[in-house]
Write a structure and sequence with these properties.
Layout: E1 3-7, E2 10-12, E3 18-20, E4 23-26, H1 47-52, H2 58-71, E5 76-82, E6 96-103, H3 106-116, E7 122-126, E8 139-144, H4 154-163, E9 165-176, H5 181-188, E10 202-205, E11 208-210, H6 213-222, E12 226-233, H7 239-242, H8 247-263, E13 269-275, E14 307-310, E15 313-315, E16 322-326, E17 329-331
Parallel strand pairs: 5-6, 5-8, 6-7, 7-17, 8-9
Antiparallel strand pairs: 1-4, 2-3, 9-13, 10-11, 12-13, 14-15, 15-16, 16-17
Helix pairs in contact: 2-8
């Protein structure tokens, strides 16, 4: 196992105290506890139809696109969206030479394949964020939206995200804000038990979490991710407002509040742009579709750079595990 000490900055202890500690990024091997971390699984769900299509969320979709356009580079070599689902945001990545859509759900990725599979720039990968099957430093840009709120172990996930970026990368991460205005009002009226001012995460439904901005800032710092910008997004997530103002217009109004809302977030959603100045440089990885196996990391043993042994199969040179491509999706969750 190879380890890289990426910083000696302060890292949080439980309760909010701080201590000096080394932040270690594992670049070989896998987290032995990863298999025990619960994961929200959308396998077989109708997430697109049940949550997005005709469900009154056109405003949220538009606002999130505007936030991403402000925070991520429009062009680059390789971008990956972690938790990409059915590819809702994929049209935003048109300026990249290679687009990697990663999700835990194979069936959602198969929907993305139907929309984007004819574009040779796209790679569809089923994988677990806690054993993220991409090689270290592979990404020029990383995007993760509407995923953090499902993570039972945020520090473990952030270590993986930190591992797959290099020192010149841009990472755009979104999380659900515990200290949002609605929660503050409800708490003030004694209509909810938990305090939005308490820095600890709250699990309000199983595997659905809200996070305090100060707590999240500490977690990012602890793994060596430096926040460059922060935006408050979706300030108007109320049916009474959304029914009276067109989604595109409401999103534009929201955009005017992004920066101010990031200074002291009260919106239900927070977007951060982060970098990893202590990371290694960008590895020499081709974006040629024929070289896709070199992009993958073995989820079983952590060896990086798999070998393509058939059109629909790659093999780990370390443990000899095979992984298959099925219905356009490289399944790196389990041996195949």
């Amino acid at each position: 196992m190879h380890q890289q000490i990426v910083s000696r900055e302060t890292a949080p202890r439980p309760g909010g105290a701080y201590n000096e500690q080394e932040v270690v990024i594992v670049t070989g091997g896998v987290n032995p506890q990863a298999a025990n971390i619960p994961v929200m699984d959308y396998e077989g769900s109708q997430y697109r139809a049940d949550f997005w299509l005709g469900q009154g969320r056109a405003y949220e979709d538009a606002a999130e696109r505007l936030a991403l356009q402000q925070l991520m580079p429009a062009h680059g070599g390789r971008i990956a969206e972690i938790g990409a689902g059915f590819g809702r945001l994929a049209a935003l990545y048109d300026g990249y030479a290679q687009v990697v859509l990663v999700d835990y759900s194979r069936t959602l990725l198969q929907e993305a394949v139907r929309d984007w599979g004819d574009d040779p720039r796209f790679v569809f990968v089923a994988g677990n964020i806690y054993t993220l099957p991409l090689v270290t430093g592979a990404l020029d840009t990383l995007v993760m939206v509407r995923v953090m709120h499902h993570l039972a172990d945020v520090p473990a996930a952030l270590l993986q995200l930190r591992r797959v970026v290099h020192r010149h990368s841009v990472a755009v991460l979104e999380y659900a804000n515990k200290r949002n205005l609605k929660a503050l009002v409800r708490w003030g009226l004694r209509r909810q038990a938990w305090s939005p001012l308490d820095p600890a995460p709250v699990e309000f439904v199983k595997l659905n979490y809200d996070f305090h901005p100060d707590w999240m800032a500490a977690q990012l710092q602890a793994v060596g991710l430096e926040v460059n910008r922060r935006l408050g997004v979706s300030h108007f997530r109320l049916s009474a407002i959304k029914q009276r103002v067109a989604p595109a217009r409401l999103a534009q109004i929201d955009r005017w509040l992004f920066a101010a809302g990031g200074a002291y977030p009260l919106a239900p959603s927070v977007f951060v742009q982060a970098s990893a100045p202590g990371a290694l440089g960008r590895p020499a990885l081709s974006t040629d579709p024929a070289a896709v196996a070199s992009l993958f990391r073995c989820a079983q043993c952590g060896v990086e750079g798999l070998v393509q042994v058939a059109e629909d199969r790659v093999q780990c040179p370390g443990c000899a595990t095979h992984f298959r491509k099925q219905d356009g999706v490289w399944d790196l969750k389990e041996p195949g």
